[in-house]
Design brief:
seven-stranded mixed sheet; alpha/beta; globular; 7 strands; binds magnesium ion; Rossmann fold; binds adenosine-5'-diphosphate
Length: 254
């Protein structure tokens, strides 16, 4: 098992799109990945065409009723392994926020359910550093940070890096991370400027592959499909395949 948390405290930067399509790219590379939806908005769950998930059968069942993660895993219509989310997850902060031991619950649950090496687990986070995201960060081996190619998104990276560094200091461990630029528009000079500025800030952590602004990537969730099922020849499919290959090449999923 290697656990990748996809996080950025800014919304709309492509976390869910990246989690869905990187999972799909890895599945096509025979990796048998598992995607975990840890956002009460359940965008990943819905994007993959999973409807009518009940609370007990979602990640809410894991946090509230101690359900095992394996018992919650479903096969989405396109064939991907998914542990879905439900709106009920939004209560986890209020229910367990004062309980210090809750932050390590996902880490323990993953170790118990996925003891085998080599299974990539990708966690889609909500845009807040609450109990759920803290669980995802403490459980992960690496963090993948999607940053959309716009000015405000770039500003958020500094804050995010500071938050991760504070956690690293408190926990005395490191969270190796990669940053991927999403919604790159080759017609806009701003996209290139953002890429260059990120490179100066994070150095080697910046992925060479950028995810281009692509209409098929915007359309595919509405059809409940990942990009490889919906538009296999699109630029979006090409970009996410290249990103998966680049990350695998540097051992990000080992
Ligand atoms: N590369 C892209 N090209 C076009 N639309 C995109 C792209 N990446 C994300 N989107 C769209 O932008 C919106 C926000 O993306 P999403 O992945 O849900 O962000 P987050 O999970 O960070 O909130 C969604 O409607 C999604 O379909
Ligand atoms: Mg999302």
């Amino acid at each position: 098992m290697s656990v990748i948390t996809v996080f950025n405290q800014k919304g709309g930067v492509g976390k869910t799109t990246t989690c869905v399509n990187l999972t799909a790219a890895l599945a096509r590379m025979q990796q048998k990945p598992v995607a975990i939806d840890l956002d009460a908005q359940a965008h990943l769950t819905l994007s993959l065409g999973m409807r009518g998930v009940i609370s007990d059968e979602s990640m809410a069942g894991f946090f509230k009723d101690d359900r095992s993660l394996t018992s919650l895993m479903r096969i989405a219509p396109g064939g991907l392994q998914v542990i879905p989310a439900h709106l009920e997850l939004s209560k986890v902060d209020a229910l367990f926020g004062n309980n210090k031991s809750i932050a390590g619950k996902l880490r323990g649950g993953l170790r118990a359910s996925f003891p085998l090496n080599g299974v990539p687990i990708l966690i889609d986070c909500c845009p807040m550093m609450g109990v759920l995201t803290l669980n995802a960060v403490l459980a992960c081996d690496r963090v993948l940070i999607p940053v959309s190619a716009d000015y405000l998104s770039l500003q958020g990276v500094h804050r995010l890096d500071a938050a991760l560094q504070a956690l690293e200091k408190a926990l005395k461990r490191s969270f190796p991370r990669k940053v991927v630029v999403t919604r790159f528009d080759s017609r806009r000079r701003l996209s290139y400027e953002i890429y260059d500025k990120l490179g100066q800030h994070v150095g080697d952590a910046l992925c060479r592959t950028c995810i281009t602004e692509n209409v098929s990537l915007a359309e595919s969730p509405g059809h409940g499909m990942d990009i490889f099922s919906y538009a296999p020849r699109s630029q979006g499919a090409k970009d996410y395949r290249l990103l998966a290959e680049e990350l695998q090449g540097v051992g990000f999923f080992d």
